[in-house]
Structure formats: C-alpha cells, structure tokens
C-alpha cells in the first residue's frame, strides 16, 4: 500500500477523531453506541483500517455530525478509487470488470506488462481464459458469468490488430508451465504464444528460470502509456496514476526486461515448456 494512500487514510482517521471529540465521546462510548469492538474505532482513527461508506455514515450519525458526511465520503473516494476490491468489483460478475479494462486499454497506444505466474491476458486463448475465470469465480464466490467474461477478454485482443498499437509483454518461464488448466488447453495456449513471436504489434519476452534476476519477480502489473500502472493482489486491484509510482513500475519493468530473451531464444523456451507437456 503506497505512502500517499496511507497518508490519506491517516488524515481521514484524524478527521474522524476530531468529530468524535467534538461530540464529547470517548472511543469506548462511540464503539458501544455503534456496537463495534473498541479496537475498530482505534484502528479507524489511527489510519490502520480503511473505513467503508457505511462506517462513515454511522460515525457521523452517532456523533451528530451528519453535516460532515459529504466531506468524509469525498475523502474516501479520493484515495479508495485507486484500490478496487474484488468483492466490490465482482458484485456483478467478471464480465463488467473485463469491460472496464477494455475501455481503459482502448485508450492506450503502448502497453507494457509483466506476468510471473500466468499467461498475459491479452495473449490468452479463450479456453485458457475460461479456466482462469473459473478459478477466480470459485475463490471469490462471484457471479458465474464465465462466457461473458471470456468474450469480453477476447474482444480486448482486437487492440493487437489495430495500427499504431504496441504490446510489450514479459513473462517468467514458470507461467508457461503452470497447470491452472488441463494440459491440452495449456498446449494450445503455448502454440498461440509461439505464433505471436514476430508479430509487428507484439514484443514477447520470456525470462528463463536460468536467468539472473536483479529484482524479485513479485506480482504482475500493467503500464498504460506511462500514465497508469495497474497491479493486483488477492483482495484488490490497484490503479495507480501518480507520476512517481508509474515511474517506479516502469523502472521495475525495464529491470526485469534485462533478464528476458526474445525471438528465436524465446521460441526455444516456449518449445521446451511445450515438450515438457508431451512428457506428462
């Protein structure tokens, strides 16, 4: 979680504490009124927990400071817009999330992406994508709109065939071996990757396991036109648009790229993974 985010959350907590003191309530009294554990009030006030919109509404009602609700909500939206929890995003399924991505990607001319564990989304086959969505639907207990999500992801790939576009993708070799789908599906996916090498709008690099790394592989991320970095964790997606943070992700990407192989060398790494499947 970035420093800017934490500072904003701490500032919101300071404001909440001021409203409680204005109402002449102790933390324990407010917690009892709201039927919360006292630790929740403390965490919110010290910026150790992110308030929800409902938390803010109840806080202002309990302290008689409803006039401050609009201000508090704006503060929350201002820093939470960067943190898109999967629980909220997937309330209506994976399809709408994919369409949001499609709209953002459509406005980009150049995309850089790093993936360490899975095949880059814009290079996935429909069957591979389907198994990905099945896994995450099960994890999050979200709406099962797999076919809609797959269609949306496949539409995004039309971007690759438009003039003036350029996708610079790097993947760690383990992503080529991860059996999050049946071996036959992964085999077809690897064949597609091999076929993309040499395409004028796609630069595909593979970081072999034998490569020396200047940084840990960590988690995957996307950089759109040097204006937006998107990364994800198990609980949320982070959309980061301040110049310093986007610049940091660009530095990480460029550093990882130094360990990648391209062209015929990348083709050999993919072929090695394909051959390993034939032996299973």
Plain-language structure description:
The protein is α/β, with parallel strands linked by helices. The chain has twelve helices and seven strands. The mean pLDDT is 93. The longest helix is centred in the N-terminal third of the chain and has 20 residues, at 3-22. It is elongated, with a radius of gyration of 23 Å. The chain has a seven-stranded mixed sheet. It has two domains: 3-81, 434 Repressor (Amino-terminal Domain), CATH 1.10.260; 85-278, Endonuclease, Chain A (2-Layer Sandwich).
3D shape: elongated
What structural class should be given to the helix and strand makeup? alpha/beta
Strand content: 5-15%
Task: Please tell me how large the radius of gyration is.
Answer: 23 Å
Q: Tell me about the biggest sheet?
A: 7 strands, mixed
Topology as a string of helices (H) and strands (E): HHHHHEHHEHHEHEEEEHH
Compute the average pLDDT. 93
CATH class of the largest domain: Alpha Beta
Number of strands: 7
Q: Fill in the CATH topology of the largest domain.
A: Endonuclease, Chain A
- The helix content is 40-55%
Poorly predicted tracts of residues: none
Please tell me the total number of domains: 2
